[in-house]
Amino acid sequence: MTTKNATIKDVAREAKVSVASVSRVLNGLGGVTPVTQKIVREVAARLNYVPDNAARSLITGRTHTIGAVLPDLHGEFFSELIRGIELAARAQGLHLLLSSTHDGIEDAAAAMRAMRGRVDGMLILSEHVDAAFLEENLPDKLPAVLLDSPVKSARYPVLNIDNRAGAIAMVGHLIEAGHQQVAFIGGPKTNYNAQQREKGYRTAMARHAPDAPLTLFDGNFSEESGYRAGQQMLAKKPRPQAVFAANDMMAIGCLRAFREAGLAVPGDIALAGFDDILVSRYLTPPLSTVQVRIADLGRLALERLAALLNRTDKTPASVQTLGCDIVIRESCGGKAAAGAASRKLRKPPRPSRS
């Protein structure tokens, strides 16, 4: 028997088990032997049986859907993040509902309220989120995992990238390569990642080049803001010997400004970014950068949320900090980079309890 309109009763009859057993298998409720589970899943696949999600939600109290609230849905960083979340969600048998909050705090609140009753849990990456915001906009019993957040809460696990350590390592490399005067292009002032990367720049300069001036330019993570910062650098006397941009898109914009002015990278000025988006390795010259495993960040966040939903995670909420690499390519130049277009310095993941 094969039909596109097969019912749960059809599956039960073909598998020679009760409707209750089929329901338990397909809803992951347990209490059924592995052999029976295998038979039920094979029969359901053969009959093209598609569960009625509305009815299943009434039985289980779950929607099997996860909400992800992100600042934006465009660009290589968010594409990779969503890819990691989606692949992990699929492996867990979960669906993904996405919303962006790029217009501010009210949009973030509206997105989270709109997901109430439609999702079993949320992944939240937003510069507007603090403990008070979460308390006001998230139901008490709705599990959530925060990404790239300064929030420390007994309720919500947090996954962060070690932005500060990555920035320290990259600026340290630029100075070791012979570039004492390193300029920094920052990201949005309210963005946690941007704040941590600026702290890393300041720490590395104080540690490795204490007599060199700090030279900072404003940016907003966009290519255009990096282009504007590059133009401003061209007018600065003396010009910096190297530039560290708080993300790769700004580094790409800066590279465009230098090219238009006839400057050679790295011959006249060295350049580095942060994130290691795919296009970075295909630039001319290839861009040195701090490599963030963006898809892994999404995957780990989803897996942590799934563990909360399945009640398999009994550990207290914590802040888990994921390490990153620096990837040295041709854009750095300098004595230490001669003859070594690419190498990696590894900083391992570091969990810390909140």
TrEMBL record:
Q: Which residues form the HTH lacI-type domain?
A: 6-60
Keyword field contains Mitochondrion: no
Source superkingdom: Bacteria
Taken from the record, one Pfam family name reads LacI
Q: Which UniProt keywords apply?
A: DNA-binding, Repressor, Transcription, Transcription regulation
Q: Which Gene3D superfamilies match?
A: 3.40.50.2300, lambda repressor-like DNA-binding domains
User: PROSITE patterns in the record, alphabetically?
Assistant: HTH_LACI_1, HTH_LACI_2
UniProt keyword annotation of DNA-binding present: yes
Q: What is this protein called?
A: LacI family transcriptional regulator
